[in-house]
Amino acid sequence: MIKTSTPGKLYLAGEYAVVENGNPAIIAAVNRFVTVTIDENTDRCSITSKQYENHLVHWERINSRMVVDDRDNPFQYIIAAIQVTEDYVQALGKPTQKYHLSVNSDLDSGTGKKYGLGSSAAVTVATIKALCQLYHLNISKVQLFKLAAIAHFSVQGNGSLGDVASSVFGGLITYCSFDRQWLSEFLHKITLPELLKLEWPRLEITPLQIPPVLRFLVGWTGSPASTSQLIDKVELKKGKHGIHYERFLHDSNKCVREITNGFRQNNIRLIMQNIKKNRELLQSLSQMAGVPIETPQLTRLIEIAEQFGGVAKTSGAGGGDCGIVLIKSDCDIAGLKAAWRDAGIEPLDLSIYNY
Ligand code: PMV
């Protein structure tokens, strides 16, 4: 039996801008996990997930492609992760095996709603990590990221893949998105082992630390949002607002740089100023693209956090899901959480997860 867990994530800054190649975001892995278990004691390949009431699919490899017995199954990311990893195994000349793979996740609330903590990236990474153990693949974290990025990209083609990097590396990172056009072009021109050895243009992943005087808090609005749809809407509108969009990218990158410097230099004022600035930039992007990034409930979450001395903003694509707060540890954190609860916002008991 093999068991692996990978963390979910939240964006601290740089969201949307990071979708453009080479732009940075700051992302925190959090201590809630997707767990994948592999049981080799079987003669048929299958997948189940607790989140889908133990929905069961069987599959087999026919001419190197996975053929699943239920085409409308909810396991697209798991299947993509298995496909890519087993393509890699075969490219190394090793045989593939039969196993039952089961998934459990605490990135969803008890009522089955997603918190928006990056469950699709976490399940992709957890599946590949488990398979690497099964097939005794000794790969580096960067190579694990590359395999997971290829798998995730094959299902959702419009994201930055920062959530995949966060699940692989854990902790707090700055992530610069690599050139996904380049990946699409190279993917079928060279073998997977060669692709994993190449430097990927513009990819940068750097670890960071939050200064110890700051606490990182998370509130959940209870309304799920579709990141992919929000990205598509921004994508559609950005051409019409060329100069403003370029300015948004420029200013977002500056914010990420300043927050990164603030973390490195323990400069709390610089961090706080730029979290606020990043919130404003996302509000202006929201107006420009006509996309509801900061919903009224997220505004409420942010305003309450500010009343207690914190700085706060939407996290990730917004439109619901979670808001994040940075606040000094000596502020009235219990009071802030109580005020959130009164406003129908659930404080999530999360901290940054380091491997
Ligand atoms: O909504 P989330 O937490 O999945 O974050 C999305 C962040 C974006 O920058 C909007 C998209 C991306 O893929 O980076």
UniProtKB/TrEMBL annotation:
Pathway: Isoprenoid biosynthesis; isopentenyl diphosphate biosynthesis via mevalonate pathway; isopentenyl diphosphate from (R)-mevalonate: step 2/3. The keyword Nucleotide-binding applies. The keyword NAD does not apply. Keywords: ATP-binding, Kinase, Nucleotide-binding, Transferase. It comes from the Bacteria. Its EC number is 2.7.4.2. One of its GO terms (molecular function) is phosphomevalonate kinase activity. It is an enzyme of class 2 (transferase). Residues 263-344 form the GHMP kinase C-terminal domain. This is phosphomevalonate kinase. It comes from Fructilactobacillus cliffordii.
